[in-house]
């Protein structure tokens, strides 16, 4: 049966399996009948995926090639009755600056010999200088044969991508180097952005303004280097002034501590935030020494210093994905800190609103009971043990009144 499938005689094989399934069913061997049925379904799936052209295309070999500086990838497909019955891809390493045409010719002769092919028609992507007796070479421009050639080329491309992934699994640094070099090219940087620092501001109506910085090293998050900033010099919601403050504080400290600077700074925002960040770099004498860009959320526009018009990266590019990941991570990290700060302020507000209970007693209660919920449910005795008889009774009475609505 396998030989018949490879020859493309799928209909005959399917009929044999149907007869076998019926035979098992008649003898009440239902488990065996089910197993044969599953094989028929697999064969139907194989046939539906394989039949991509006119069934009248008989005994044809299809070859395509995809090449780069170091290697070429050649895909071979055997077509019978419009079905692909064989498909195989090989990698050819370039040794003597061979041309794509030469490598394809070598692969054709190798495949034909290896699979003992006697097809009298070979479909190829371009003319090559090769002669095989009683064999016609076709370079299709449209139609079913061009569809087959396109499929063969996709097979070669997928094979190359898979080989790249395998190499990256064995050598993860290779993957990072490739991405960083691509980022350097896409963003017009002077050097690969090995270390990236990204900033985002978080505030709600100006309350508890904070900022966050995340750090990516070799295109991966380095969470030990993440930093939070409580805004100190800005009153009210002012993203521009907040950005100016945190950029100045961050890089003033790095300079004072003589720590390495990043190759790229990303600020979450457009021209306004970028301009504010530049003001701080200017004060520190760092303008032009560190590359910096802004990313605006709406259209994912990339802004450069001194450039009025944004740059748009391909939505599928790895460079944009890394920038978005940095921005989203900074936003998440900042929001988390902002929520914690608001939550702590709300807790302290509830407890410090109790007459006679100050900051020190509040801290003692939170250390002992961990949360306001636990303080509310604590007994009088537990509270008095924690903060003393008089204070414990004040807190207990306060929450008792709250619970009863008085």
Keywords:
406 residues, alpha/beta, 7-stranded mixed sheet, 5-stranded mixed sheet, 13 helices, 12 strands, 19% strand, flat
Give a verbal description of the structure.
This protein has 406 residues and is an alpha/beta fold. The protein has 13 helices and twelve strands. Strands 6, 7, 8, 9, 10, 11 and 12 form a seven-stranded mixed β-sheet that branches. A five-stranded mixed β-sheet has the order 3-2-1-4-5. Helix 12 (380-387) runs antiparallel to helix 13. It is flat and about 105 Å long.
Produce a short descriptive summary:
With 406 residues, the protein is α/β, with parallel strands linked by helices. The protein has 13 helices and twelve strands. 27% of the residues are buried.
């Amino acid at each position: 049966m396998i030989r018949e499938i490879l020859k493309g005689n799928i209909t005959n094989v399917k009929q044999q399996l149907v007869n076998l399934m019926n035979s098992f069913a008649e003898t009440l061997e239902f488990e065996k009948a089910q197993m044969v049925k599953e094989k028929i379904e697999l064969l139907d799936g194989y046939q539906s995926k394989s039949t991509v052209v006119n069934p009248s295309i008989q005994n044809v070999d299809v070859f395509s090639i995809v090449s780069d500086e170091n290697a070429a990838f050649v895909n071979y497909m055997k077509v019978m009755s419009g079905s692909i019955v064989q498909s195989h891809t090989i990698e050819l390493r370039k040794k003597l600056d061979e041309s794509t045409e030469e490598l394809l010719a070598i692969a054709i002769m190798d495949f034909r010999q290896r699979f003992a092919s006697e097809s009298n028609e070979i479909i190829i992507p371009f003319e090559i200088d090769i002669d095989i007796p009683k064999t016609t070479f076709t370079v299709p421009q449209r139609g079913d044969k061009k569809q087959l050639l396109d499929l063969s080329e996709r097979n070669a491309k997928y094979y190359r991508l898979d080989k790249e992934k395998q190499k990256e699994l064995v050598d993860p640094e290779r993957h990072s180097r490739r991405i960083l070099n691509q980022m350097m090219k896409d963003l017009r940087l002077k050097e690969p952005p090995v270390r990236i620092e990204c900033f985002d501001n978080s505030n709600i109506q100006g309350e508890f303004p904070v900022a966050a910085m995340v750090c990516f090293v070799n295109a991966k998050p380095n969470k030990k280097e993440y930093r939070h900033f409580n805004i100190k010099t800005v009153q009210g919601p002012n993203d521009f002034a907040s950005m100016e403050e945190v950029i100045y504080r961050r890089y003033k400290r790095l300079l004072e501590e003589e720590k390495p600077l990043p190759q790229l700074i990303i600020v979450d925002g457009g021209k306004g935030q970028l301009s504010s960040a530049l003001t701080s770099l200017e004060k520190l004498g760092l303008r032009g020494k560190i590359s910096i860009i802004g990313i605006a959320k709406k259209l994912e526009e990339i802004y450069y210093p001194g450039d009025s018009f944004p740059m748009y990266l391909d939505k599928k590019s790895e460079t944009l994905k890394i920038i978005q990941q940095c921005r989203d991570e900074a936003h998440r990290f900042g929001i988390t800190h902002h929520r914690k700060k608001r939550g702590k302020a709300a807790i302290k507000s509830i407890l410090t609103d109790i007459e006679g209970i100050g900051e020190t007693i509040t801290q003692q209660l939170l250390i002992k009971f961990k949360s306001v919920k636990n303080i509310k449910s604590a007994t009088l005795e537990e509270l008095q043990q924690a903060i003393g008889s008089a204070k414990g009774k004040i807190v207990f009475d306060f929450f008792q009144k709250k619970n009863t609505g008085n």
